[in-house]
Each structure stands twice: as structure tokens, then as C-alpha cells.
Amino acid sequence: MKKFVLFFALAIASLITFGQKGYTDFDTVANVLVKTKIAHANSKDNNSPLELSLYFQNIGTTEVIVRYEIFIVADDDKRHSGKKEIKVKPGQKQAGKISNLAYELIGTNIHDYESGAKQWYFTILEVKDAATGEVIATSSKTDEE
After folding, report:
1. How far apart are CA 13 and CA 42, in angstroms?
2. Where are the alpha helices (DSSP H) in 30-137?
3. What is the pLDDT of residue 118?
4. What are phi and psi of 80, to 5 degrees?
5. How many domains does one find in the chain?
6. Could you tell me the pTM of the whole model?
7. In angstroms, rounded to a whole number, what is the distance separating the alpha carbons of residues 68 and 85?
């Protein structure tokens, strides 16, 4: 039984560690690290749709709510996430598909986003105190819609 528990714990730890690779720093807003990653939905298939994954880590001491909205623009196609909120406890990380923080991008070519031919951006990115609902800080790296 001890071997099974140890194996299970190691499997979970490796999945969590592996799943966070490839994220790039975006901003730090009120003790919340914000990272992003663009990758294929199926990492073994370069023709699979692209996804934008978000990563929020609360390095502060109080529970917060991250409020955001993402726009995705390519040619004449424009999509948005709608306004979303996610609670992040002190020390907690919320990331990718497991936390429902992955959004399908338009197309299958990562270079289109790296070159700016296709774009995604936050229109809202703010951190609120979970207890009071008061906005603590807003990112300066947002574009108005």
C-alpha cells in the first residue's frame, strides 16, 4: 500500500511539474504571477488547434479573485472569453485546462502569433480581494476594446 501511495504521489507531482513547462511571464499583479503559453491542443500533432493557456499563482498571503477577459483576433474573425473570475488561495497555482484556463486560438501556426499576424490580448486583468470584492490592482498590460 505504501508503494502505491508513493507511486501515486510521484505521478501527480510529475504531471503538475510537466504541465507548467513552457509558460512565459506576462505580468505580476498584486502578488499574483500571471503567465501564458501558446501550444497545440495535442502536443504530438502540429495540425491540432492552438490553445492559449493561462497560469495564475498567488504568492501573497490573502485569497484573491483574478478577473480577466481575453480577445483573440485573426483576419476578420474575432472571439472573446467573456469576463471571467477565478479564486486563487495563498500559495495556490491555477493553470491550463485543469483549471478551465485554456482558450482555443484561431489557426494552427504558432508563428502567426509570434509575428503578430494574429493576436490575443487581455482587455481586463485585475486582482480583487476575495473577502471584500475590492479591486487591489489592475495590470497595465491590457488593451481597451
Report:
1. 21
2. 110-115
3. 93
4. -145, 155
5. 1
6. 0.82
7. 6
Higher pLDDT, 18 or 40: 40
Neighbours of 95 (CB within 10 A): 19
SS3 of the chain: helix, strand, coil, percent, to 5: 20, 45, 35
Domain assignment present for residue 143? The answer is no
What mean pLDDT is reported for the chain? 87
At 141 the three-state DSSP class reads coil
The rounded Cα 61 to chain-centroid distance in angstroms is 21
6 within domain boundaries:
no
Residue 9 lies in a domain: no
Within-domain flag for 97:
yes
Where does the pLDDT of residue 7 fall: very low under 50, low under 70, confident under 90, or very high at 90 and above? very low
Query: Above pLDDT 70, what percent of the chain?
Result: 85
* DSSP H helices in 20-134: 110-115
CATH code assigned at 87:
2.60.40
pLDDT of residue 108: 87
Q: Residue 94: give the domain boundaries.
A: 23-138
